[in-house]
C-alpha cells in the first residue's frame, strides 16, 4: 500500500505527452494494489506564484509582520511541504522546455525548498530533511538528449531532489516526440513498457 503524489507540469493540457504518461502510470499504480492512493497536483492549472522579494521574506523570516499576500504564500508553501511529507512516492512529470523543466515546476521547487524546513545547514554541509521517499520522473522531449551533455534537466532534478533528501530516483524517458509519427509511437510504447515493468 502506498500514497503517491502526482505533480503534473505541462502547459499543453489535453495535448500533453507527459500528462498522458502520468495517467498511464496512475492506472498501473491504482491497479497494483487496491489500497494504493493518489493525490494529483496540476502545477500548470494551479500555479505556484513566482518567488519575489516580498514572498521570499515570508518564507525565510520569522520575525516580520506578514502582508496578506505573504500570508497566502506562506500557507501555500507550508501546505505543499506537508503534502510532500505525507506521500511516500513522488511522481513528477518533467517535460523539457527550452532545455529545462517548465517554469511552473521550478516555481513549485522555490516554494518547497526552505532552509530549516526541507533542508538544513550543518557543519558538514547541507542536509535534506525529506526522508524515506521514492521519486519517479517522467520526462518528455521533442528531441533526443538522454545521456548527452545537452540533458541539463536530469542532473538538475537529481540535484534538487537530493538536496532535500530524496535520493531514490527513477527516470522514464519519452524522447523524439517532435520527430514524426513513427518516433512518437515508438517512444510512447517504450515509456509504457518501462512503466509496466516497474516494481513497487
Ligand atoms: C515551450 C516549449 C519548449 C520546448 N523546448 C524543447 C527543448 O528544449 N528540447 C526538446 O527536446 N523539446 C522541447 N520542446 C518539446 C517538448 O519537450 C515536447 O513537446 C514534450 O512533449 C513536452 O511535454 P508535454 O507534452 O507533456 O508538455 C518544447 C516544447 C515547448 C512547448
Automatic annotation (TrEMBL):
SUPFAM superfamilies: Flavoproteins
Enzyme superclass (EC): oxidoreductase
Pfam entry (one): Flavodoxin_2
The protein's required cofactors: FMN
Keywords linked to the UniProt accession: Flavoprotein, FMN, NAD, Oxidoreductase
EC assignment: 1.6.5.-, 1.7.1.17
Gene3D superfamilies: 3.40.50.360
Cofactor note: Binds 1 FMN per subunit.
Binding site for FMN: 10, 16-18, 96-99, 140-143
Residues in the signal sequence: none
Residues spanning the membrane: none
Top-level taxon in the UniProt lineage: Bacteria
Recorded family membership: Belongs to the azoreductase type 1 family.
Protein name, UniProt field: FMN dependent NADH:quinone oxidoreductase
Organism (species): Xenorhabdus anantnagensis
Biological classification of the source: Bacteria, Pseudomonadati, Pseudomonadota, Gammaproteobacteria, Enterobacterales
Gene name as annotated: azoR
Amino acid at each position: 500500500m502506498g500514497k503517491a503524489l502526482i505533480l503534473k507540469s505541462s502547459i499543453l493540457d489535453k495535448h500533453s505527452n507527459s500528462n498522458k504518461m502520468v495517467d498511464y502510470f496512475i492506472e498501473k499504480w491504482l491497479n497494483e494494489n487496491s489500497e494504493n492512493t493518489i493525490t494529483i497536483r496540476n502545477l500548470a492549472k494551479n500555479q505556484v506564484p513566482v518567488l519575489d522579494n516580498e514572498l521570499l521574506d515570508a518564507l525565510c523570516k520569522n520575525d516580520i509582520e506578514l502582508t496578506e499576500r505573504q500570508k497566502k504564500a506562506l500557507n501555500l508553501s507550508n501546505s505543499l511541504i506537508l503534502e510532500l511529507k505525507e506521500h511516500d512516492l513522488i511522481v513528477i512529470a518533467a517535460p523539457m522546455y527550452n532545455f529545462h523543466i517548465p517554469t511552473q515546476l521550478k516555481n513549485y521547487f522555490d516554494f518547497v525548498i526552505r532552509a530549516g524546513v526541507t533542508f538544513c545547514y550543518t557543519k558538514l554541509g547541507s542536509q535534506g530533511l525529506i526522508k524515506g521517499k521514492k521519486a519517479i520522473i517522467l520526462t518528455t522531449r521533442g528531441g533526443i538528449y538522454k545521456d548527452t551533455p545537452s540533458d541539463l534537466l536530469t542532473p538538475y532534478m537529481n540535484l534538487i531532489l537530493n538536496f532535500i533528501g530524496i535520493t531514490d530516483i527513477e527516470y522514464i524517458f519519452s524522447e523524439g516526440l517532435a520527430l514524426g509519427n513513427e518516433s512518437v509511437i515508438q517512444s510512447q510504447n517504450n515509456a509504457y513498457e518501462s512503466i509496466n515493468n516497474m516494481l513497487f
